[in-house]
Amino acid sequence: MTDQQDSPKPLDSETVAAYLRLHPEFFIDHDELIPELRIPHQRGDTVSLVERQVKLLRERNIEMRQRLSHLMDVARDNDRLFDKTRRLILDLMDASSLEEVVSCVEDSLRREFQVPFVGLILFSDMPLPVGRSVSSAEAHQAIGGLLAGGKTICGVLREHELNFLFGSAGADVGSAAVVGLSHNGLHGVLAIGSADSQHYKSSLGTLFLGYIAEVLSRVLPRFSTPLRSVR
């Protein structure tokens, strides 16, 4: 009876697991136990602890390399976008006419940025000699909801909004990003579109498009005195 009382109690699996977590070096001092350990394999076989650890480390290494590769791709894409944006902004600063401003934006977005659908609309109560212009009242009636927040809007737009922004090509636009040209008033709107309905999602980063719009909204009033400044 005394022997039964003095005998150690069996350890449960949680206690063993907790101990090993606190002493990860346990098998370094007791490596003779490693050959006796067996861990179930997905196929129903058994592998040693070392083999299992090597497999897990290999999988984690592959995952980390994939993440690093993704980050490198994003960084390269951002570098290319920055370079294209820088060139466009410099061209806008060097422009000497409204015609040059409009052509710089449209040509750069289509050729450099490879944007298939571009809509640049200026707000003016008088017809402008270049580009597309409408009155502010007409613009607010058609896309007032897109301009109300003063921020870039991304996603799937309504049919009449696409038709207003892209004309006859609006039927082919699956998703778009829209930003108002606002500086001391609202002077116009810039929109870019894609046939893919998932391309311009609501969570899409619009940093570079915002930069272009900010510069454009400051350059336009220099050459377009008829432009209406809408508060």
TrEMBL record:
<protein>
    <submittedName>
        <fullName>DUF484 family protein</fullName>
    </submittedName>
</protein>
<dbReference type="InterPro" id="IPR007435">
    <property type="entry name" value="DUF484"/>
</dbReference>
<dbReference type="InterPro" id="IPR029016">
    <property type="entry name" value="GAF-like_dom_sf"/>
</dbReference>
<dbReference type="Pfam" id="PF04340">
    <property type="entry name" value="DUF484"/>
</dbReference>
